[in-house]
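From the shared-data thread, chain only:
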Amino acid sequence: MKERTVHQIGWAASIMSVIMYISYLDQIIHNIHGNKGSIILPIVTTINCTAWVLYASLKHQKD
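Structure, as tokens:
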């Protein structure tokens, strides 16, 4: 795979990391109101972890 594509996957995973931590706010709001957690956090976390695994496995030069 092209190095540029792997670089873009890395950037997308970085952005998803920020979104994952922002989605904790939704979880906190639900907990404060006494509701169960929403489905947003597990979905975003799964996508984020998958992106990082994909990035690490496709990168030619390992860190």
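Helices lie at 3-32, 40-58.
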